[in-house]
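Thread title: Can someone regenerate the structure for this chain?

I was given the following input by a collaborator and told the matching structure tokens would be attached. They weren't. Posting the sequence so someone can regenerate them.
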Amino acid sequence: MLKQYRFVANAPRGPMGWWVLLPIALVSLATLNWTVTGTDTEIGKLVQGLPWIADFIGRMLPPNLSYITDNLIGPALQTLQIALLGTLLSIVLAVPVSLLAARNLSPNAWLYHSSRQVLNVLRGINEIILALIFVAAVGLGPFAGVLALAVHGAGMVGKFFSEAIEEIDQGPIEAMRASGCSTPKIVLFGILPQVLLAWIGVVLYRLEANIRISTILGMVGAGGIGFELMTTMKLFEYENTAACVLVILLLVFATDIISARLRSFIR
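Best answer:
Regenerated them for you:
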């Protein structure tokens, strides 16, 4: 009788009835209506604005290609420098915090939760807000952009680093602890080999994101090609604005291709 009861309890459930699906559907529709109403979303407004979009694009065409060679090569290279250095500094900041924010490595619960909240705070502040803060602190220029990417990136990268650490095989770690290995040796020889590929993937993804973000940070005075983009728009030089957009797209495409090649090589 007990075996029969267990079989019935573990039997697969049938499809949900209307008394379950109906409340889910009603809640979903109410949520959709709430978001549409709160954001003032109207397709008619977009349709009415299409001629203005067409007019703006028409003013940008054809792009002033000579502006690229005369004015944009330096800012484009500076954008790459901002993204690369910001990514490197974010890794330096993220690694020690991620070790403490991993549940299986943190020495106590208080330190674990504190480290987690530090990462939450770092990635919870938008890069543009951080760039404005650092522009006020260190002045206009690319250094403010580097600091903004480093701080925000540390929160993002640290989160993924700590989650990769929590998924490692604990067997080698316990064996090294039992043999009396120090913590640096455990990290270097027991943890790093297991998480290295995952970490590299996270770093490449963050570098791609930083290339895109660094083009925007220039609009708030943090250097790079974004500063040129904002300047041309303020001066109504839309052909030059189109040239800036082309360079930004080339940077994004090149970064994506190189990142994909590096991932394939690593695998």
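DSSP finds eleven helices and no strands in the chain.
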